[in-house]
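Margin note from the TA: students keep mixing up input and output lines. Inputs are the sequences; the output is the structure of the whole complex. Example:
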Amino acid sequence: MFDFLDSGQYDVLGAFWVTVQLTFYSAIGSLIWGTVLAGMRVGPTPLMRAFGTVYVNAVRNTPLTVIIVATSLVLYQTLGITLAGGDSKGIGFRLAVLGLIAYHATFVCEALRSGINTVPVGQSEAARALGLGFFQVLTLIVLPQAFRSVVAPLANVLIALTKNTTVAAAIGVSEAALLMKEMVENESDAIFLVFAVVAFGFVVLTLPTGMLLGWVSKRVAVKR
Amino acid sequence: MSDLSVLYDAPGPRAKARNLVYSAVFLVLLGLLLWWALDAMADKNQLAAEKWSPFVNDSRMWTTYLIPGLLNTLKAAALAIVIALPLGALLGIGRLSEHRWVSLPVGTVVEFFRAIPVLLMMIFANQAYAQFTDIDSEVRPLYAVVTGLVLYNASVIAEIVRAGVLSLPSGQTDAAKAIGMRKSQIMLYVLLPQAVTAMLPALVSQLVVIVKDTALGGAVLGYAELLNQVRVITANYGANVIAALTVVALIFIALNFLLTSFASWLEGRLRRGKRSAGAVLHGADTEMDFDEPHVEPHARK
């Protein structure tokens, strides 16, 4: 019944390993870029605020597919940007990570902004009364508390990111969805099994993430 | 902390000067990035007027490619929401059922379809239709895209419906029980009508997610929607990939921005003129609400 898995023709675990790697690098990247964007959006410099607002609203309303396809068609095929060269496999992977970061950073930014809203005004007022500047207030007082209150929303972003890595199939990154496309086309007598196997893989990836981070979010939440 | 300016003092003369310096540095950085991008584009001859002008001069560009593409996007999105709404409502009510043999399987189905990527469902539906039905291969991608979107979004809408019903105060159910309504009557005449108004913003935001996800069908299954037209346009107008993608992205942004603004306007309006007892479910980022939407603990027993 599962002989399509034993045939050695399809590297299911390898494909899911690519999915995990895509998720890992994109998660770190979007956390950093999203935090920077949030900093810009709440900062005192009007130009940075405007840039943050425009960036978030534009990118959030663009389909991820358009962004990922654009990284391949525009950056690589038209402008010849390879992000450190290598073979086409590595280039596709890095371009997909770039697109995923650009898209998901906007959601990280919005989650963080709502987290900043949960920090009581008195915290930053007290910090300012001590003479801390904006950057110090943000990094020493407000963000540490904000991060603790947005673990649950960030976990949702991470889960959405895990699922959205499948979009990288659109530019030929050999991750789980592309492998599934190949498998359902070749193994026409076992498409329900193929679907079940790949879907199971994603359930295994997303459900523990949600549970673990749900537990973490309860533990680290600031009691007010 | 709704007014974020509490994070910094009102700028004095020195802070104003410093902000000006930061602005200038940031502007220079942005300018450098833009200049580098334009330079790279000019290098590959992507700034040439004939690559961009068809979008302004040539009406065929719009009537033959962009508008039919946009209509296909809207068609898939509209079909998906029209089918997913009643299905999602049924699933949501099923999950609220007091019979465990109903709520348990429905809950499993909802959680399963929310945990897997929508692209998997599209690919699977495409192949399943090819094998088990005789749907014409011309329209098969549309069927596959709509199927994938319906399966995913019905389960998301089920959660929205459930949260909407749970957000109503328990007094509503108690009062309905006291006047002798049956469970189906309570749901149909008392809870759902109030929940629907609370859910509206979240539903409109879900429409944004659906519109964005139709692009997947174009890129992976070859459904002739807006993004898919980029390939056709570049084949006909001479490798103007950047121009075509820019215009397509702008159309998507405008469409979704309209929907997002409508959702937040709706939310504000419902909050202000609230006659029902329930809370308004906020509409932002439903794509990211994987966990059960937050419900006040005292809302309903």
